[in-house]
Amino acid sequence: MGNKSSPELTLSFLLIAALCLEALIVERFIYLSSNKMTWTEGRLFCQRKHIDLITWNLVNTVQMTTWLVEENVTQIWIGLRRDPEEDSLWKWINVKTGEGVSGDDLSQSSNWADGQQSGHCAVVGDDLMWYSAQCSSRYNVYCSASDKITHHKVNLSWYNASQYCLEENNNLATIAEINTDRLKHSGWIGLYQQADKNWDWIGDLSSNYRNWAPGEPLTADCGSYNVTTEKWYSKKCSQELQVVCSADNLVVVNENKTWEKALKHCREMNSGCAEPCMYYYDLLSLPDSSEYSYIRDRIYRATTDEVWVGLRFLAGQWWWMNGAEVRDQGMLTKCPAGWNRCGILSKKDTNHWNTRDCSERRNFICYKRRSSSTV
Known about the structure:
Elements: E1 8-12, H1 16-19, E2 28-33, H2 39-49, E3 52-53, H3 61-70, E4 75-82, E5 90-93, E6 101-102, E7 120-124, E8 130-134, E9 139-145, E10 148-156, H4 158-167, E11 171-172, E12 187-193, E13 199-201, E14 222-226, E15 231-235, E16 242-248, E17 250-257, H5 259-268, E18 279-283, H6 292-298, E19 306-314, E20 317-320, E21 342-346, E22 353-356, E23 362-370
Parallel strand pairs: 4-16, 19-23
Antiparallel strand pairs: 1-2, 2-16, 3-16, 4-5, 4-14, 5-6, 7-8, 7-12, 9-10, 9-11, 12-13, 14-15, 17-23, 18-23, 19-20, 19-21, 21-22
């Protein structure tokens, strides 16, 4: 699948059978980083070099998993994140805007390993300092009634520990400075994280005392994928894992140019390619409407509402720059007025292109196409 010494490994999700018939316009890939990094570093890496961290709607998970097994990779960061506005929700990153999260709540998805999407609760560690842990984890329990604290050698989740203490007419322990000497072992205490990110004590008692370990409280707010179990896991975002980025053969250029200069810009991106070139850049041709929605998302961050594409009226006919047939000629005027002879795609419009004056200036979208000799 690739050279181990290279900075990245690449997997293409092209259908080889389709290539025998006609070169695909939009080609999608994933890249595996060679180095481990935090979730935030991983996302910045993907956005800088490719598109973004992978999300399940843009990747063939079966092919990806098989590939990662062959590369001896066990865990990777994915574009899954706890919603910063509501702690109980997990969502995909917003690849379209490049910021925040979007879409449906995934906290109940069957893709999760058992309990991995749970909240955060405080546990006393072996060093008697406090740590944030997933509430679904299992530890011994501290119960308290008034100022009396007792340690119980049972292995329970935080929620079950709370029920256990109630059955003993107690609550999970509230710790104050005057009773810290009662903590001799590891175990749950009654401190938990609310959806608004505050940490509060269970029950009616309260305390401002905290004994967090250095760097705590940490929360498992970032999503990872385990290739062996094929399940999602919530991990501390500061942990370091390899990342898999999504990518394609499209290039959105945030420069305002006329159609002719946009075409020239795309084709000049071929400079430096040693002959014979396997790939060439060109203004994007869009004969297949099945990719309009994807492409419209890709041009979302263009600085103009419309971008030039490779549609042009020449010699009395409409043409795509890759030579493909314009299949719905009936929607185009056979004698366009003035210079209204060049194609655009709007990031706000329906799944269709339109035409504009070729001398207008706007952003544009190029694509990397295979040389005809390689198809």
